[in-house]
Amino acid sequence: MYSLLCRCWRFSNWRCTLDLQHSGTLVSLFREQIGPECQKALYDYWISKYISGVLPRRADIEPLEIPHLLKYVGLIDVLPNDDFKYRLVGTHMVNLFEKDFTGTLASQSKQGKYGLILCDMYKQVRDCKRPLFSKSRFIYEREQPIEMRRLILPLSENNNDINMLLFATIAVNVPLMLAPDLNVINDSIDFIEHQRILEGHLKDRMKPQKKQKEAI
């Protein structure tokens, strides 16, 4: 069932080779889907580096230009063996997950359904060369769900091959009464992605969740 869902998320070849010229309408429509202001600001910054149809390079991302965003920002190396390596993870994410994934492979540090969904997002951005925004949640047995928002942006040294991903992961509703010893990832009993949007193709990538799951 899960592999079927993954296949449903993937776009046909013609969708992945859409012209990368960013029209004002395309940018505006995608930006409207992004909730957290820090992620909107990161997307705006990425767009400012997208000049004359050329994808931003790693060297175009200057930390001194976005000091207020650095704690939310991470970088992922795209590896030739269909894996991904976390080069940098911002302190917001380190504090949230109580672990610094810098230097680890996504295939090894993110396991199970959660890992499969994350790697599928990374592959989609790599293959389609477009920004992606995702809404998801961690489900717990005795705690309220934690809602997550992910923004993933492609970087390229040659405007063709995606060699790095710029990303920001935000928890938008950490419950006030959350157990102090709760591990956000390891203590979850399920991980549900309920919306995935690729720039230029604004459509939910998941079927609507059943009402009882939405009410969890």
The residue fraction in helices comes out at 25-40%
Radius of gyration, CA atoms, in whole angstroms: 17 Å
Choose one word for the global shape. globular
**How is the biggest beta sheet arranged?**
6 strands, antiparallel
Mean pLDDT: 82
Order of helices and strands: HHHHEEHHHEEEEH
CATH topology: Beta-Lactamase
How much β-strand is present in the residues?
15-25%
Q: What is the spatial order of strands in the main beta sheet?
A: 2-1-5-4-3-6
Could you state the CATH homologous superfamily? PAS domain
Overview of the molecule:
By secondary structure, this protein is of the alpha+beta class. It has one domain: Beta-Lactamase. It contains eight helices and six strands; from the N terminus they run ααααββαααββββα. Strands 2-1-5-4-3-6 form a six-stranded antiparallel β-sheet, sandwiched between helices. A hairpin with a 6-residue loop joins strand 3 and strand 4 (146-156). The two termini are 21 Å apart. Residues 1-21 and 202-216 have low confidence and may be disordered.
What are the SSEs and their pairings?
Blueprint lengths: L1 H8 L3 H4 L7 H10 L3 H12 L24 E6 L5 E5 L2 H7 L8 H4 L2 H17 L3 E8 L6 E11 L5 E10 L18 E9 L12 H4 L2
Antiparallel strand pairs: 1-2, 1-5, 3-4, 3-6, 4-5
